Amino acid sequence: MSVFFSKRFEKLVPYVPGEQPRGQEYIKLNTNESPFPPSRKVINALNCAETSLLNRYSDPSAKALVDALTGYYGLPTGSVFVSNGSDESLAFIFDAFCDGKRGMVFPDITYGFYPVFAAFFGLKYRTVPLDENYRISVNDYKDISDNVIIANPNAQTGIYLEKSEIERLVSQRNDRLVIIDEAYIDFGGESAISLLPKYDNLIIVQTFSKSRNLAGARIGMAFASPEIINDLNTLRNSFNPYNLDRLAIIAGTEAVKDTEYFKKCTAEIISIRESTVKSLRALGFEILPSRANFIMAKCNRISGKELYLTLKERGILVRHFDDIRISDFVRVTIGGREQMDALVKECAKIIEERKKII
Amino acid sequence: MSVFFSKRFEKLVPYVPGEQPRGQEYIKLNTNESPFPPSRKVINALNCAETSLLNRYSDPSAKALVDALTGYYGLPTGSVFVSNGSDESLAFIFDAFCDGKRGMVFPDITYGFYPVFAAFFGLKYRTVPLDENYRISVNDYKDISDNVIIANPNAQTGIYLEKSEIERLVSQRNDRLVIIDEAYIDFGGESAISLLPKYDNLIIVQTFSKSRNLAGARIGMAFASPEIINDLNTLRNSFNPYNLDRLAIIAGTEAVKDTEYFKKCTAEIISIRESTVKSLRALGFEILPSRANFIMAKCNRISGKELYLTLKERGILVRHFDDIRISDFVRVTIGGREQMDALVKECAKIIEERKKII
């Protein structure tokens, strides 16, 4: 820490992204990326003609991408905000709508970045525990006047909250915002986007990093009333107006247009998830019911931490969280079929070895 | 403004980027982009093999790009920070090193984003007037204990401050940071990077948007002591750790490697600038002495605003600022030779027309 660093950041602990290994080749199932390449339409559009124009600024309003999303979801003009990954959307949302008076509330187990955003901007937050089945109980939120953010399906658990429950949460009170972080919604959940016309206190955040196969292009978005989107653009234009580069805007726009590929990829992930869950359960694993492109798996023969380390030694990278309530689990991204077969095979071996030891 | 927008942003006025016209074709000399395409090495590297990997996250440490810059400038490990455009570097610098106690000071005429960053983060700032020749007088800063940011060459004037003067500014006192925003340094100035080993209170900010022909890739960087860079990374990782996408990292890395093309392009801009200045002066224009890729030009026969509007009508886009001290000028980006010939020709016509009217 330099002597010049503001004292207000002395205790700031940054978010820790999943490992991005260099050198050694892993079966990489730790950061919830898609195992499938981007749409051919994306790859074809990112051609020499476009890269030759990189000396020119990108469109700060990212109109092509905003229009494509507006059309795809059938939203009114002015309802779409785009950002450099959905983390940037989330950051601006925390900053715009919380302050010393109004804080943010979220479940105790969820996306680990939420408390970091609050700390970064010096905002209040508090957590509400998930129930004993790792589920969100909407009734727990009815007396909360702070803003509420829920990941749905929830990060780290993959558990999905029905749209009717989301509506109950949003309609509990209109004096607070409810933000639904739908990073994983396309793997079997139903988006709350259709609720937007009814509720001015709802913001939905999505990303191109999972179901749109574009984690490396860094594109996120938020959907809300034009007034709220306008507030977010005020902040964006006071921080970094050209936040999406030319190629990201093109990639996102083309990805939205290729509905067929999007549906094919997400259906395939769901299918692979279901067969992986079946195989791991057959080996004795407990798996939380997931509607995401990852699963939380635990086995009473080996701790979460040990399983993570053993798999890593053997060339398979999954993720482990130290949070006490989920430290028995490993989080496994749904990769391609061969990758998941390799994972299941390795898990079977590890369990066999443990049986012999005991 | 939504009812949920935090009251602390009620008066926030965002930065206004230069017009990015759609539809009509302009000779675009308003946002200080390079008229030359990116290096062939950049274009060749952004190939199908790379775009096919966009389903994978980018490296959050952007190691390839950081290493390329560290090597190019011969800096110690840990001295380079990279960001989504240099605006993001500047934003993090304002946030990290200023607060309620320590503010930021900058000239009254400079990059218009500085006061916006201060307002966005709720920081104090004040300005020090340029002298009557639009020059920075280093002595004006000697009693200032707040941090100081100077664009060199200065934004909006193009006027360059010698490196010896920069050193005098930095060495005036060691209890404050001096930030040198070198967005335009490669068009005839000498970077203060060589001062870094001597001064722990110096930060240098640069960008790929001007001299590296990559405005559309959104890459900026800061150079400073490893402690300061570490502070900036703490903030980056608390806001948006994957702030550079895969293709931007590749583009930046390849651009740094192509020194020959970089030198050729910047030399060409300098040559075109000098001949444009000569031609416009011959027409009676007053031009501030520029070491940037733009010039400030004024003519006593037509106001800055009128000249901007007349040129726009005739298909040439330049930039006009309402700030009272420079409102007589238009800011003209140095484009390609044909573009500048067209500009000079049009200016000559406009002046002839004015002579007839009077």
What attributes does this structure have?
homodimer, 358 residues, alpha/beta, Aspartate Aminotransferase, domain 1, Aspartate Aminotransferase, domain 2, seven-stranded mixed beta sheet, three-stranded antiparallel beta sheet, 11 helices
Description:
The structure is a homodimer of 358-residue chains. With 358 residues, chain A is α/β, with parallel strands linked by helices. Chain A folds into two domains: 7-36 and 260-357, Aspartate Aminotransferase, domain 1 (Alpha-Beta Complex); 40-257, Aspartate Aminotransferase, domain 2. Chain A has eleven helices and twelve strands. Chain A has helices at 40-45, 48-51, 63-72, 86-97, 114-121, 163-171, 226-236, 246-257, 259-282, 304-313, 337-357; strands at 27-28, 80-83, 104-107, 125-128, 147-151, 178-181, 202-207, 220-223, 286-287, 294-298, 316-317, 330-333. In chain A, strands 2-8-7-6-5-3-4 form a seven-stranded mixed β-sheet, sandwiched between helices. In chain A, α5 (114-121) links the parallel β3 and β4 (125-128). The termini of chain A are far apart.
